[in-house]
Amino acid sequence: MDVLIRPGRTYSVPAGPAPRGRACLLRPGAPLEQCSAGTILRRSSGEAPGRSPALRERETVTPALSEIPAPLTSDAPSVLVVQHEDDAGPGLVGDRLGRTGVHLDVVHPWRGECLPGTLGGYAGLLVLGGSANCEDDEAAPWLPRVRDLIRQAVAEDVPLLAICLGGQLLAHTLGGTVVRRPRGPEVGAVPLRRLPAAEGDPLFARVPEGAPAAQWHWDEVARLPADAVPLLTGDACRHQAFRVGAAAWGVQFHPEVLAATTADWAASDGPAVRKAGGDPDAAVASVRSAEPELRAVWGAVAEAWGTVVRARVRPATTVR
After folding, report:
1. What class does CATH assign to 78-312?
2. Is the pTM of this model over 0.85?
């Protein structure tokens, strides 16, 4: 959903985990306006998030990097989820995390929802995919805040699962390199190979050799951060899964995605994929054919990450 600014009118802006319904008046000609509730909105025109590389201009309400309180940890640990686009939600990963008793606090920053300033009160961070480049702060002005949250998660061993764009953000933020794929996009269900470090990994130890993974990306990690541990690889994309520190995982593929989502992406991205030499229809068909295995393999990985999240939450001490 796009939030269009009309000069001289008041808008209610959803603010993620903060109380909703904050209002802010944007005056004509004023690029920045400080709201009484402490939220800053920016009137901007730029690239609209979309899975196709084609750009569209629009005006958006964008939250500034103001401090928004995170929820307190309860018996059900809460994971902050950064969703970059409408058609790139937590999907299968979100469903399986729910089975482990993890609560998802999904923030949609492109709608004007504000990301928290810290991970205080959260037991984990899930950063989803999107079509923006990991350095394109103009198209996605919330990315600097996401990078800050990633740094905090890694520094404090807060469990982090970073998917596609999220994985690229993780690598880039910690000193790796992300590039445009010279061979065009990788799309469809692609078999992956295990690397030695996967053997003892909390998430990927049980991923079978040759497990298919749903792919849909134009960029890729060309060089991992210096201390990253590679876990999975593929023929057309070298860095498919990696770990940084004790509890931060990045993946290039989409463990959350099944055939219905790839069909949506193919509908919007099809012409660009064909122009680059790909076959979006075949890509969707391959994901549909692999769907039972996708559910089994990556659903189990999502539940394993949920177990890591829950293990980090210590029971409250009872005072007598």
Report:
1. alpha beta
2. no
